[in-house]
Predict the structure.
Amino acid sequence: MPHVSVTGAGDQATVDSAGLQRLLGQPEAAWLVERIRGRLERGEPVDGTVTLVGATPAQRRAAARLLGHSVGRGTSLSVPLPEVTSALRRAGAAPSLQSAVEALTGPVRDLAAERAVEIQRFDDVLARARSSPLAALSWYHEWLEEITRDGTVTRLIRQGYGGLVARAAAVLEHVPGGPEPAGIMLSDLASAATGEAAALTPGQLSTLVLRALALREGVPAPAGREAERALWTTAGIVTDDLVSQVLVLNVRAGGEPLGRWLTEAAAAGEPFRVTLRQLIAMPVLPWALDLFVCSSPAVLRAAADQFGPASPPLVCTEGEPSVACARLLHAAVASGTTIRWHGDFSWAGLRAAATAIRRLRAEPWLMGATDYQAGLASGAGEPLTGQPEPSPWDDRLADLMRTCGRAIPEDRMLRQLLARLDAASS
């Protein structure tokens, strides 16, 4: 009769495999083995009774064969575990419940010990992240709380990727944090923080970092590659220095050769597109006293058509400002230029304007509650969607937009914008 040695309950125990299989190894007894295993893994005593509600006739016969007596006819099947131990010993099948369970289903886990190890790993992971110089910042604290609360940290630890939390913290420490975006390349950021240029390609690490940056910038966590690229841009990080561009009209500037190119385009009254790569390699110093900002290319095109070289200097953000756009505007501010900001009457437009006021000391133009009402009166509105934003330069504006529920795209106010540019050029 085959026997195997199984270490159970701290002792070397001999198990009769064939006898154990006959008594507890049949499918009809699997529920009993599972209940015993559960108690052992949880560190609970195995000296009580286990009950199966709705037992089948086959399960009832298996229990009777194991215990050596009838187990009744009710809908519930109760099995005293001490009787199971006695039956196994009497048959020479196994000296204990633990040795029997391990022979049938493998080593019994110590869930309490595993949990203690997991808790220690959890504490270690968070301790490294909490020691970051960023720990005093509210958005960083909120990020740690969020990924702890929703189970992200636990999941990463269980998958063997707990170290990603500390790597994400290291990346965040290298992200530009001042009012002026530095225009750091994504690959350079990854190399500086992790030593791997490709570390921030889409994956678990970049997702962690982007969740934190969304909290820092006060925007929803990105869903999709386009939203991820937009968030990197908002944070001053460039995924491609050729793709990051800014469209301008009549922005004269010093600096060779890019400043000369800008000035020549302004003399011709023609729009000119500048890449971030050019702005980094050939820094310029804009000369304008007032530089007007719009968000729609239709406005810049109309200004070029109507005013040509006489148009006031105009920069178009083409929606969310690119890092190239931010770099050019910061260069203008550094030379004493006043930025005059306009955008869509939408929640995103309000957020962009508030950011420009905070970072560039920009002054809104045609961006007040009165201007919004004038746009509505002309029938320019469309449904307003998204998360409401404040308008700190004119509290009435956000309140009106929330009440009316209408957005006004910038190109629907083209007549008013051109009239203001005409007045400025005069």
Observations:
- Residues 112-238 form one domain.
- Confidence is low (pLDDT under 50) at residues 7-12.
- The longest helix spans residues 111-130.
